[in-house]
Amino acid sequence: MIKRILRLSQNEFYKLARQKITYFSIFFVVLMSVLSGIGANYLFLERSEIGSGYLFFLISSRTVINMFGVILILIFSALLISSEVSSKTIQSVLVNPISRFEFYVSKIIIGMVFSVLIVATILLVSFIIAKINFTFGDYVENGITIYTQNEIFMNLSLCFLLLLLPIFAICIFGLLISTLTKNIGLAIGVSIGSIIIFDILKERIDISHFLFQSYIENSFELAQNLIDGFKINWIPNVINCIAVPGIWMILMFVTGYFIFSRTNFK
Amino acid sequence: MARDSHIVLQVKNIKKKFQDITAVDNLSFELKSGEIFGLLGPNGAGKSTTLAILTGLVKADEGEVKVFSYDLRKTFIKAVKNLGVLVEIPSFYGYLSGFENLKLLSRVKMVKKGEIYSTLEKLEMASWAKTKVKNYSSGMKKRLGIACALLGNPKILILDEPTSGLDPKGRQIILDLIKSLSNNESKSVIISSNLLQDIEAICDRALLIDKGKAIFCEHVDALLKPIENSYTLQIEPFNKACSALKSFKGLRKIVKLSSNSVKVVLSNSSSAELNQYLVRKGYKVYEIKMSKRTLQELFFELKD
After folding, report:
1. Can you give the residue range of the structural domain that contains A227?
2. How far apart (Å, rounded) are the C-alpha atoms in residues B195 and B294?
3. Are residues B171 and B52 in the same domain?
4. Burial class of residue B292, CB neighbours in 10 A (0-12, 13-18, 19+)
5. What predicted TM-score, i.e. pTM, was given to this entire model?
6. How far apart are CA B233 and CA B242, in angstroms?
7. A2 and chain B: CB distance < 8 Å anywhere?
8. In chain B, what are the helix, strand and coil shares in percent, each to the nearest 5?
9. From B51, which residue of chain A is nearest by alpha-carbon distance?
């Protein structure tokens, strides 16, 4: 089974490399990151100030991931099944010696790979701009080094690893909607629309702790506390960041696969 | 022609309902080794749903499908390994070439690259291999679909309307190919069609279905045997000769087919008597031949 999943994933990689949406998405997030870099020139008056690099890096990547990265990941994952169903290519694939489970898992893998690609591109471009225009360094307060530069980068890396979990949950959510709707336009509309509705509702009815997308912000808040020199209590934060998106991922995967395995493709 | 009676695919009492519509109703049949088996029926008869059940695209509500000894539901992958499938409207990734589409499939079927080229050559598609599929005609897509079905050298081919949408030349190429695959490579084939001529041209046996139910399952010769006492005539002057025919005492039914041909069904008279009658009345009789059934006639006759 693992061999077949790998072979299917290999096919998905091949398609990813040949599709325009991949290059458009990368170009778009690079452009947005560069534009945020240009905008930041007007915001950060003291570029040489120690630590301004971290601040820019966080603000830029947070803005681009929240505003554009999530939307692009949702669009991509919402297309994963619906585009195959609407173009009927799914029929040509599923009549081969593969199980629907293997096919579904390969779709999740490619969705996650795309998510990592988008997040990594945003972080990399933001980091390069920060490195060129701003200054990094140790966090020092009253002559005492609270965090060395290496410690800050190590902890930031952990924050970004935690960020991947809610991002993966977003991807599996898109795939679930893709499984439910079968129509490309509807899948994109419903997935983006429902995330926006959840975002509006989460503060009003105080459910943000239970929603996976809240943990994107959570990761950035941890990173923000870090560069502000606060000590971070990792254990409860890591548990929350893993548990809530993790439970959602399992629930959405099981629901999506249950529906997919019972769908008639004719 | 079928070489032995070894059963390679067995369908037992399959049923499928879509909401209130029964698409397949208690259908059973068997496919023998090396046989070309035709599924015949009008649009909406349940042919495509039956084939979709055989390939796992649609789950049957009841019944059992066995490919060799493998139950399709319980051991899907082992069962499907023996199948090469052409779906009704074969679809591909338009942004990839024909070769690339086959390459993706070859990974799933664990087939070597060399086989892709030989399959494309078999279907006279080698020159189109590098062209993006979005630039293919529907006939080319159909051929690429058959190439997909042939990849991996499966023992059974399931072809859903392989000739629909093809020009006469393309249709003949496909029919010849199917026949040679059965004759030379001992492949067992299930082919669905709503064209009686296709079934007649290549099939050993045929199953006629309507509203998901089996109406008739027999050798094609039996299905297509000429209708007793039914003749097609070419006569002149046409209108006057037709009027005269109406007063022929052995006539049971008369149907005009074209501007110079007519079909008659006689009760107990022979074609010689009919010919004699027309000639005696001074009409020219160019041809009298026994009529073959049209699909429509076959349906009505067998349903009655």
Report:
1. 2-262
2. 9
3. yes
4. middle
5. 0.82
6. 10
7. no
8. 35, 30, 35
9. A266
ipTM confidence: 0.79
Q: Does A23 touch chain B (CB under 8 A)?
A: no
Q: What does the alpha-carbon distance between residue A142 and residue A125 come to, in Å, rounded to a whole number?
A: 33
- Give me the CATH number covering residue B265: 3.30.70.100
Cβ proximity of A212 and A245 under 8 Å? yes
| Residues B144 and B290 placed together within one structural domain of the fold | no
A96 contacts in chain B (CB < 8 Å)? 80, 105, 108-109
Give the count of domains, chain B.
2
pLDDT in tens, B99-145: 999 999 998 888 888 888 888 888 778 888 888 988 888 888 888 89
**Residue of chain A whose Cα is closest to the Cα of B18:** A264
Regarding whether B164 and B74 lie in a shared domain, the answer is: yes
Q: Does A265 touch chain B (CB under 8 A)?
A: yes
Report the number of distinct structural domains present in chain A: 1
Note down the domain range covering B52. 7-223
pLDDT tens-digit readout, B185-211: 888 999 998 777 788 788 888 888 888
B130 shares contact with chain A (CB less than 8 Å): no
B72 and B113 fall within a common domain: yes
Which residues of A fall within a CB distance of 8 Å from B56? Answer: 94-95
Give yes or no: residues B108 and B133 share one domain.
Answer: yes
